[in-house]
């Protein structure tokens, strides 16, 4: 009886642990945000592969001495969650000491290596953790209780009084936050996409990157496929900040809901998940008008999530579900294959191919 009672007690405590993991998950996010704000990864990276002690980190990030004990506790969380690694330095040659009294050494992990260097994911991570995107979720429960027209059903607008894209149009700093975030993601992902699925970009002579921001994706494609003439279509306030000089890419100010310039292929990276089905169909219909027939090489190339498409382990499934809620903040949605197929065929396309080679994202080729 005691054994059964103990087993039941342990099951209850395990359930409580799972509840706490969900309850305090925001602490992990805020610890990561603090690491970005303080540039802790850069401080460790400055000391090379051997790692950095807490005093060495403090010397780089310049915090008051009164906060050093608290920084030690922050580093403990960041190490426990895999952002950094922490270990005591190895004992000196000939020493019998285990060096437990020596300062802890903090090193970069595969996760934090993504936050340093010339092409890192710090900008998009900063964007995802920005208060403008986090604060609407405090009102998620009340948002569910309000009846709203579909066109007004945006959590971001519910919290801030304007849409995400409206704020980007009016606020140069917020616009730069989004553009810099998208550039960092493209710099990270496009070399992988081209390597893993080069065939998607072969056999075409022109490509327009719709909603392509500052052109990082289009530049990567132009570099990998010099025979492909690449252009970027985006709104006026985005194109106004396009990089100067010879980037190998033409920038076109316009609106994808009105008209898309003609090309063999239309490229949509992380665009359609921002919009509901009817808006996606409008965009795709304009894509259909812009490209030639399938026999002439016409296609739409999409990088987005395809929920449930293999390979998909538990961590992939969880992140896809979480990301679906995240894009709900701007009235977007992640889609499974059935949902993708529905909007493709409604927009007048005849076939598609999903290649799940980009982690939780896929390359989707859509044919007229």
TrEMBL record:
The alphabetized UniProt keywords are: Methyltransferase, S-adenosyl-L-methionine, Transferase
Q: What is this protein called?
A: O-methyltransferase ZRP4
**Species name:** Urochloa decumbens
Cross-referenced InterPro entries: COMT-like, COMT_C, COMT_dimerisation, SAM-dependent_MTases_sf, WH-like_DNA-bd_sf, WH_DNA-bd_sf
Domain O-methyltransferase C-terminal span(s) in chain numbering: 138-350
Q: How does it assemble?
A: Homodimer.
Write out the similarity annotation.
Belongs to the class I-like SAM-binding methyltransferase superfamily. Cation-independent O-methyltransferase family.
One matching Pfam family: Dimerisation
Per its record, what are the GO molecular function terms?
acetylserotonin O-methyltransferase activity
Q: Where is the O-methyltransferase dimerisation domain?
A: 20-117
Active site (catalytic residues) = 273 (proton acceptor)
- GO terms, biological process: melatonin biosynthetic process; methylation
* Taxonomic lineage: Eukaryota, Viridiplantae, Streptophyta, Embryophyta, Tracheophyta
């Amino acid at each position: 009886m005691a054994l059964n009672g103990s087993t039941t007690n342990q099951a209850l405590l395990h359930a409580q642990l799972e509840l706490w993991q969900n309850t305090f998950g925001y602490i992990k996010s805020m610890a990561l945000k603090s690491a970005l704000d303080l540039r802790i990864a850069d401080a460790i990276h400055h000391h090379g592969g051997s790692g950095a002690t807490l005093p060495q980190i403090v010397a780089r990030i310049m915090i008051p001495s009164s906060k050093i004990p608290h920084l030690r506790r922050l580093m403990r969380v960041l190490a426990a969650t895999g952002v950094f690694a922490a270990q005591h330095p190895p004992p000196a040659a000939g020493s019998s000491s285990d060096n437990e009294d020596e300062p802890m050494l903090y090193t970069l992990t595969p996760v934090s290596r993504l936050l340093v260097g010339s092409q890192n994911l710090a900008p998009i991570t900063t964007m995802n953790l920005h208060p403008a995107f986090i604060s609407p979720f405090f009102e998620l429960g009340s948002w569910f209780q309000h009846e709203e027209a579909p066109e007004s059903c945006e959590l971001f607008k519910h919290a801030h009084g304007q849409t995400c894209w409206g704020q980007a149009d009016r606020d140069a700093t917020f616009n730069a936050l989004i553009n810099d975030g998208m550039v960092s993601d493209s710099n990270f992902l496009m070399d992988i996409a081209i390597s893993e699925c080069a065939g998607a970009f072969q056999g075409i002579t022109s490509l327009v990157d719709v909603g392509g921001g500052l052109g990082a994706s289009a530049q990567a494609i132009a570099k990998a496929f010099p025979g492909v003439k690449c252009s970027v279509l985006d709104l006026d306030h985005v194109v106004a900040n396009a990089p100067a000089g010879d980037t190998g890419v033409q920038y076109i100010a316009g609106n994808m809901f009105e008209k898309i310039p003609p090309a063999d292929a239309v490229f949509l990276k992380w665009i359609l998940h921002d919009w509901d089905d009817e808006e996606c169909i409008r965009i795709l219909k304009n894509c259909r008008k812009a490209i030639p027939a399938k026999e002439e090489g016409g296609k739409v190339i999409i990088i987005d999530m395809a929920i449930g498409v293999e390979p998909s382990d538990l961590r992939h499934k969880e992140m896809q579900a979480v990301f679906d809620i995240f894009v709900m903040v701007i009235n977007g949605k992640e889609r499974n294959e059935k949902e993708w197929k529905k909007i493709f065929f409604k927009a007048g396309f005849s076939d598609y191919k999903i290649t799940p080679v980009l982690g939780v994202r896929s390359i989707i080729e859509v044919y007229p």
